[in-house]
Every structure is written in C-alpha cells, then in structure tokens.
Amino acid sequence: MKNWDPLDEQGACSIDRDCEDAYRVCQKLDIPFHQVSYVKEYWNEVFSDLLKEYELGRTPNPDIVCNKHIKFNYFLHYAMDNLGADAIATGHYARTSLEDEEVFQLKHIKRPQRLFRNRFEVRNTVKLLQGADLFKDQTFFLSQISQDALRKTIFPLGDLTKSFVKKIAAEHGLHHSMGVCFIGERNFENFLLEYLEPQPGNFVSIEDKKVMGTHKGWFLYTIGQRARLAGLKDAWFVVDKDVSTGDVFVAPSTDHPALYRDLLRTNRVHWIAEEPPAELVRDKMMECHFRFRHQMALVPCVLTLNQDGSVWVTLVKPARAITPGQFAVFYKGDECLGSGKILRMGPSVYTMQQGKNREEGPKKEEIDKIEPAT
C-alpha cells in the first residue's frame, strides 16, 4: 500500500524500501504480491486534515486517522472486492472477540453509510481487545476503525509477544523492517515548514508573562515538549499555546503544575462495539480508563455523555501534557471501547492554584495544609 509520493517533496523516503521488503517476503512465502496506491486518498483524508489540525494549534495523530480512512477502509474494500479476499490480516498487536474461523464464515455485506449505526442492525458486535503483550498493545491506533472492518480483520500477532514474533521471523529468514507511518523518518520541523507558512511568535513564561525567546510557528510545538530557548541552560517546557497571538507558553520544569489537568472534552466519540455503551446511555456517566498516547499507563476516569455524542472526561487525578488534537482512547478491562479527539481542556492545576491564592489571599497557612493536587 503506497500512501505517499516522495516526488511531492525534497528529501529521502523509505517507501521504495518498504515495497522491496514486502515483495521479498511474498517471494519467500510464495504468495502473490499486489501493490495499490492511495496517494490521493491519503493526501485528501489524512494529510490535509493533519495540516488543518496543526494550523488550529492542535497536535494530530495521523496513524489513527490513516487506519480509519485508508487501511481499514479503502485497502480493506480493495482486498475484498478486487482480490476476492475473505478477510485482511495486519501485524497489529491486538485481538478481537472473534476466532479467526468465525471471521471467514461472516458474509461481507456492503452497508449504506449512515451518521448513526442502527442499534438493531449489528446483532453480534465484535469487540476490540488488547493484545496479550500489554506493553506492545496497539489498540490505541485501531480505536477509530468501523465495526464492519473489525468483523473482516484478523490479528495473527494478538496472542504473541514482540520478542517471540522476532524469533519466528529470524527462524524463517525474514529480517525485521519497520516503516514510520507512511511518510518515513524525517526532520519534522523542516517537513511541516514545507507545507505551512512560518508564523513567528514569542515564547512566554506562564509564571511572570516575560518573553523568553521567539519561535517560527506555534504548530511546531506540542504540549509537554522541551522548548529550546536560546542562551538558557535550563530546560523549559511547552504548557499552552494561544493561536490568536502566536504565543507559546513555557514553564521552567518538566513536572510544572501548568502541565497537569484533570478535565477534557472530546468531539463525537467513535464507539467500536456499542454505540454508545449501554451503561453510559443509562446513567449518563461511566467509569473506565483512558490513554491519549500509545504506551502511556491507563488512567482511571469518569465519562459524562453530552447530547451531541461527545464526552467530558474527568480524571481521578491530574495527568501530564493532555494535548488537543490527540485522541482519548477508552478502555474497560481488556476491551478498547473507542475514542474521541480531544478538543477542549479544563484549567491546569497551576491556574487553579493561582485562583485559590487570589481568593484566599492572606490564608497561606491554610493552603499549606492542603495536599498538592499533583
């Protein structure tokens, strides 16, 4: 599957290498090799969205969006309709509630696309479950795929560990190769500046609002990352951005309270098996876990359902560097329930502390008695 045209830009690209790797594997296994190009679709449905998100001051996740629109949509339908496949298999570390044999028995039905899934249409919904190797689990990247796609997908690595898979590959003379999404490795700042106009602005201290330096564009920075400030030895970290002024707010430590928040709101959540889960519909609230970065520890939270299908996520304790544009991916036990894009965040612990200090003024000794929120 080719999703990027290296001729569109300067610089090296790993696509041809990936293609050769796939071809060699097919030769070794004596299976046919097919190549399909989704350069146009990737540009229209993944890359344009990525640029728009950066311009809005958010930090997108192209891997999740690509799986939703390209791999588990165009690619899946190509395999079914053009190659006559019964299912697709991918190398994600994930499992489903179906046995492989059941997947092959399911009939592939083309359903009309609707805004809402008919609750009565899909009787035996398929659940997306975490891979047995919890550290390598990749359900995070699959959290936006459709029920129809999941019913036609098998994950042969789901019950295996990464080290075991590497061992099998080595025994069969297949050398491990790894592509980075579909664009390859590159200097990301230079890459983005090929597509977005520089938007110079200031680095501003969150504490005293002092200008600490300048940057080429707020879209080059994400919350929680280190900001390289000219002439300063100490590390400063990005805690917030103001797209209207171009200011990127920074704080002088990696665990500064301005980096911690305990509330966020998503867009309309994509639920994988039940839309939305019955408990959430019944109680308007539900306890579960979530993460907003691959491989971060799961965080306990409470979801509150809004009329428009979005949710408020209240964390049991504040988390570091919650980032608009990233996906909040929800879990209950070993089931991945689905995900929503983070659009809004509640105030940081630092903002709350400042507010409390202003209100309570002279009562400092009382504040000291309260345990810090982080």
TrEMBL record:
Keywords: ATP-binding, Disulfide bond, Mitochondrion, Nucleotide-binding, RNA-binding, Transferase, tRNA processing, tRNA-binding. Coiled coil: none annotated. The keyword Mitochondrion applies. One of its GO terms (molecular function) is tRNA binding. The keyword Ion transport does not apply. One of its GO terms (cellular component) is mitochondrion. Residues 353-374 are annotated as: Disordered. Residues 189-251 form the tRNA-specific 2-thiouridylase MnmA-like central domain. It is an enzyme of class 2 (transferase). Residues 262-342 form the tRNA-specific 2-thiouridylase MnmA-like C-terminal domain. GO terms for biological process: tRNA wobble position uridine thiolation. It catalyses: 5-taurinomethyluridine(34) in tRNA + S-sulfanyl-L-cysteinyl-[protein] + AH2 + ATP = 5-taurinomethyl-2-thiouridine(34) in tRNA + L-cysteinyl-[protein] + A + AMP + diphosphate + H(+). It is found in: Mitochondrion. Its EC number is 2.8.1.14. It comes from the Eukaryota. Residues 356-374 have a biased composition (Basic and acidic residues). Its main location: mitochondrion. Catalyzes the 2-thiolation of uridine at the wobble position (U34) of mitochondrial tRNA(Lys), tRNA(Glu) and tRNA(Gln). Required for the formation of 5-taurinomethyl-2-thiouridine (tm5s2U) of mitochondrial tRNA(Lys), tRNA(Glu), and tRNA(Gln) at the wobble position. ATP is required to activate the C2 atom of the wobble base. This is Mitochondrial tRNA-specific 2-thiouridylase 1. It comes from Mycteria americana (Wood stork).
